[in-house]
Amino acid sequence: MFPGYSTMFKDELGFIHLYFFPGIDDEGNLYYRDLDLSNCTIKYEKILNEDNSKEYIFEKSNILKITCKLLDNKGNLHIEELTL
Length: 84
Fold this sequence. Notes:
Elements: E1 5-10, E2 16-21, E3 44-48, E4 54-58, E5 65-71, E6 77-83
Antiparallel strand pairs: 1-2, 2-4, 3-4, 5-6
């Protein structure tokens, strides 16, 4: 098992990044379901990586907190509050 996680950071240009790795369970399946940013009103660029991780780069630089509501593959909700 590789645990899933999300993190946020500010790059040298001041842009906020949200990095999400869904993790892998003991059966080789993704542990967390994909992020749903359909209600996000801030413009962002999405980068898909070969390891199923995703990086979101937001155009707005004054984001201080992001709350991620993550559903695992069993339907359990996990909440992570990310702050700078």
